Amino acid sequence: MSVLTALFVVGILCVRSHCAPTPQKTPLSIIFPGEIRSNMSDVEMAEKYLHNFGYLALEQGSDSHVSIRKALAHMQRKLGLHETGDLDQETMDAMRAPRCGVPDIGNFNTFEGELKWDHNDITYRVQNYSPDLDPEVIDDAFVRAFDVWSQVTPLTFTRIYNGVPDIDILFGSDNHGDPYPFDGKDGLLAHAYPPGPGVQGDAHFDDDEFWTLGTGVVVKTRFGNADGALCNFPFIFESQSYSTCTSAGRSDGLPWCGTTSNYDQDKKYGFCPSELLYTYGGNSNGEPCVFPFTFLGDSYSGCTKEGRSDGYRWCSTTANYDTDGKYAFCPNRGYSLFLVAAHEFGHALGLEHSDIQDALMYPMYKYISDFQLHSDDVQGIQYLYGPKQGPGPKPPGPTKKPSTTTTKKPTTTTTTASTTTTTASIDPVDPTQDACNVKVFDAIAELQGDLHFFKDGLYWKVPAKSQGPPKAPLRIADTWPALPDNIDTAFQDPATKKIFFFAGRKFWQYTGSSVLGPRGIEKLGLDKDVQAVMGAIPRNNGKVLLFNGEKYWRMDVKAQTVDKDYPKNTDEEFAGVPTDFHDVFLYEGKYHFCQDRFFWRMTWRKQVDRVGYIKYDLLRCPEH
What we know:
By secondary structure, the protein is α+β, with helices and mostly antiparallel strands.
């Protein structure tokens, strides 16, 4: 595995100074409105840091401190710095760096005994969310962070919504309910406790931080014509590929992105976070920067760090800061919630900090785009839990699959349709067509006991007891000749075994190899403004729920008409799932809502109990 570098440090960062050195033309020091200036010297700050992170402690039976020089040398050695024992610039920079809140030396409240869980199926609960990211993005970051550790150990991680979890996750500020308060923006990013009962095993994230995924790749746009959709990277503009926001094609310099893979074709776009659009913090309520602006008599045409000791980029939100005192901070890249969470979950599993700077468990935060777990992290976690057994897919969730019979031919109440199917005699397509390479499927459905994945005229089947991905695909036209290459959704009625397919404003009904259709969905009673049915959940009472983004309908399968009092709002009945899904289906007795590469699994009680990967958890592709 290549070097992983999500570097965080457990401990309290130095108390940061909110005032900053002023431009050299004036000896005056600026204190921004609403901020408090710190008078702490470098030595005082260093002493506080060394004490907070376990390097400096009171000698037993004495009121005097151990040698600061000795403590500095210990810290430098522990963090892989040049060991001088002096409070040099490299050491000061390290003390100012954002880090994890767990001490590098000594106990963190209850770091004693065997720091590991006595079971492998670890449960977790998300108590609340940061306003910086959409809940589904946060859920995905946590799923991927846990997956870092499950890929190399026998551990599995299951989200619960009730009861007592092993790992409780929350966002909090300052004094947030435990003995270790956060320190505001930057500094301490998060902390976690080692395995055990009560607060032990829990992970806390500082809500004063600006949480992102660290790269700007997942960017929620503003304005444009995509209703705040996320950027899609890479995207095509004027036949060129862009992997970041760009100002190409604009005379005003505003950064923008395509929200689909091809702007030339779809014309969907939004504007990326920019000081020309909005700001945060300060005293201007998110107003955009005004350029140029005057500060201490000088003119600035962009964001600046002048006047601040903390290195934050800021701007004036009026033309003259000197007279108006209005300012705000310019958008930054923030901290990768995924990387910080992966580090903190390492603590929650029993790992301490590493002195290897490229290891995930190194205390300081640093973003690296090509994330791979370092061998030091692997050796540490496998020492506690052992290596992962076998190459198989991740274990299933807590609910077992309902029993199904796949060898029995389906029966039907319709006398005009054959009860035989044609799939058994269909020859597969070129086996090099690998389902694991498909980014987003047209539709997914459980038909005749097998999970089917449809894409561009092909489909793959994953049998119920399969331990790996499907082999070669089959052609839709060979099995269901009447269907188009691209379908939107499908379902099988449990009672009659009839299979319904939807594509655009048309639908087909198959009974064995006999087909009825295509017919228009207006025959079902759907409004003319419904352009497609994007998902279907069959019920055992002869009903099926048909979804189209924000709305859903209940249809009587026998009468083939939607019931009165419909449509209803999806987010009211199915809270916690994205409304911009591209498919909904029933599998293993639970509802699955798909968005991009991910799915949200919901119980019949309408509780989301898992967010997972379509590729690994449903298609069962191997994890690399």
